[in-house]
Specification:
The chain has one domain: Vaccinia Virus protein VP39 (Rossmann fold, 3-Layer(aba) Sandwich). The protein is globular and about 50 Å long. Helix content is 27%, strand content 23%. The chain contains 8 helices and 10 strands. It has 268 residues and is α/β, with parallel strands linked by helices. An 8-stranded mixed sheet has the order 5-4-3-6-7-10-8-9, sandwiched between helices. Strands 1-2 form a two-stranded antiparallel sheet. The structure holds S-adenosylmethionine (SAM). S-adenosylmethionine binds next to helix 2 and strand 4. S-adenosylmethionine (SAM) binds next to helix 2 and strand 4.
């Protein structure tokens, strides 16, 4: 394994500690960034904001023992946001260091590929796939697995990056130049065309609705200022889990060309 020294603004340890150079989208990057998951101002800050928005699309459980399967759960950032909704939260991920943290937040961990989930057909009332599909080599396989484990009447919720030139520009070329954003975490060749995703879900009996989302501009400015001056206040669901802060809001936007949410019910 090759190592190189990296400086500040790479999303890697700022001390100049040796960091592995890995291919784009290599899951081992999540091991190297393991300490960042639960830092709401860290390299994965935006995942916190997206988890909040995704949780808002998760309905409350309608039966005792309801199960939410969280594909590519990472360190379980969704867990505190859905904790009051009545689900047993099962998380599936390739990366053990992330799963250990998810388990510490009440997620039942399964170390597996989201394209081959060791769970029974129709066991899930909700399947979540937050910021996962743009990381897998064959996203239709993961959609097929999501549909297989989802019971009829169950809900699929997801968010991902669109396969457009604008998305590649903003999410990779621009974002990776910003301070604190990990480099190489995305492979733009894996981004997911929203219309193809809707068609694929329909093939599996899921009528997926899609909308573009983005961080609210003012809330990001307020967060950046708060982070710069260290003045923070609590965000919903996080009051007991860290310092006070102002988390930015993810808001709907007119275009799904970059970042989008999808949600829908499995009809058959
Ligand atoms: C961008 S993170 C999102 C994590 C989490 N869903 C969230 O929003 O906080 C992507 C996650 O997907 C996982 N992942 C990538 N490919 C995967 C695969 N084929 N099967 C399962 N997990 C995968 C990674 O390990 C990582 O934890």
């Amino acid at each position: 394994m090759r190592y190189e020294e990296v400086g500040p603004g790479t999303g890697c340890p700022a001390s100049g500690a040796p960091v592995r150079t890995l291919p784009r989208n290599d899951p081992r990057q999540y091991d190297d960034l393991a300490d960042e998951w639960w830092d709401p101002d860290g390299a994965f800050a935006m995942l916190h904001w997206l988890a909040e928005a995704r949780a808002a699309l998760v309905p409350s459980a309608t039966r005792p023992g309801a199960v939410l399967v969280d594909l590519g759960c990472g360190a379980g950032l969704l867990a505190p946001r859905v904790a009051g909704k009545g689900y047993r939260h099962v998380g599936v991920d390739l990366v053990r260091s992330a799963l250990r943290q998810a388990a510490a937040h009440g997620v039942q961990p399964i170390n597996a590929d989201a394209a081959a989930v060791p769970l029974a057909d129709h066991c899930a009332d909700v399947v979540a796939a937050g910021e996962l599909l743009e990381h897998v080599p064959d996203w239709p396989e993961v959609v097929a697995e999501a549909a297989r484990v989802l019971r009829p009447g169950g809900t699929l919720v997801l968010d991902t990056l669109n396969a457009t030139a604008l998305s590649r520009l903003l999410a990779v070329r621009v974002a990776e130049r910003l301070p604190g954003v990990p480099r190489g975490i995305h492979d733009p060749r894996l981004f997911v065309d929203s219309r193809a995703l809707v068609r694929e879900c329909a093939r599996h009996g899921i009528h997926l609705r899609v909308r573009g989302v983005r961080p609210g501009s003012w809330s990001v400015v307020r967060w950046l200022v708060g982070r710069a001056v260290g003045r923070v206040r609590p965000g919903p669901g996080l009051r007991d889990s860290g310092p006070e802060r102002y988390p930015p809001r993810i808001v709907p936007t007119w275009s799904a060309a970059v970042l989008y949410q999808g949600w829908g019910t499995k009809e058959r």
